[in-house]
Amino acid sequence: MKITLLLHNIRSTYNVGSILRTADGFSVNHVIYSGYTPTPAPYSTLLPHLSQKITTKIHKTALGAEQTLSSSYSENIIEEVQFLRSQGYQIIGLENNLKDARLHQITEHTLPGLIAPKVALILGEEVEGITSKLHQFIDLFLEIPMTGNKESFNVSVATAIILFYLRYGIDLNRS
């Protein structure tokens, strides 16, 4: 499976770093930063000393994955999503508590048959999720079922769960 991650409007440098380290662990093919997601050098447009400060914070949790992963920055997330779709990618959003027929829990037995071999996984802002302007471009939303008192996982933890599912869970469900 070919996986591209789109980090759109992630607020925390530590979440970005943790996502990058997890992406490396699950052999993500490419990471795209967009919106106000803190980006490591060379993608930062901030002054050099501020860029270095953000890169250092990301490195604290990424532990070098920010340097080894293939990555880029997109000024226009909608154009990026449309380009990925034109390249044969299925656009998947990681969301929860969404009233949408495209939303599927990863525990659904029929879900593996809905996942394409090339996916672009959009991760949204920690509190608000994926911006509504992107919803129309998403083919499928994935949700992680929650059984505790909280309504969601931290975005970096949720990313790890979804990437594990995409790499191994689909095959486990098919056997």
How are the elements arranged and paired?
Layout: E1 2-8, H1 13-25, E2 30-34, H2 48-62, H3 65-68, E3 71-74, H4 77-86, E4 90-94, E5 103-105, E6 118-123, H5 132-135, E7 140-143, H6 155-174
Parallel strand pairs: 1-2, 1-6, 2-3, 4-6, 4-7, 5-7
Our count of helices gives 6
Helix content: 25-40%
Q: Averaging pLDDT over every residue, what do you get?
A: 92
Q: Radius of gyration, rounded?
A: 16 Å
Shape: globular
Distance between the termini: 17 Å
Main sheet? 7 strands, parallel
The parts where pLDDT drops under 50 for at least 5 residues are none
Helix/strand class: alpha/beta
Fraction in beta strands: 15-25%
Give me the count of strands.
7
Strand neighbour order, sheet with most strands:
3-2-1-6-4-7-5
| SSE string | EHEHHEHEEEHEH
- Oligomer type: single chain
Q: Summary?
A:
The chain has helices at 13-25, 48-62, 65-68, 77-86, 132-135, 155-174, and strands spanning 2-8, 30-34, 71-74, 90-94, 103-105, 118-123, 140-143.
Explain what this protein looks like in three dimensions.
The protein is of the alpha/beta class and 175 residues long. Helix content is 38%, strand content 19%. The protein has helices at residues 13-25, 48-62, 65-68, 77-86, 132-135, 155-174; strands at 2-8, 30-34, 71-74, 90-94, 103-105, 118-123, 140-143. Strands 3-2-1-6-4-7-5 form a seven-stranded parallel sheet. Strand 1 (2-8), helix 1 and strand 2 form a beta-alpha-beta unit. Helix 1 (13-25) packs across helix 2 (48-62) and helix 1 runs parallel beside helix 6 (155-174). The radius of gyration is 16 Å and the shape is globular. The protein starts with a strand and ends with a helix. The mean pLDDT is 92.
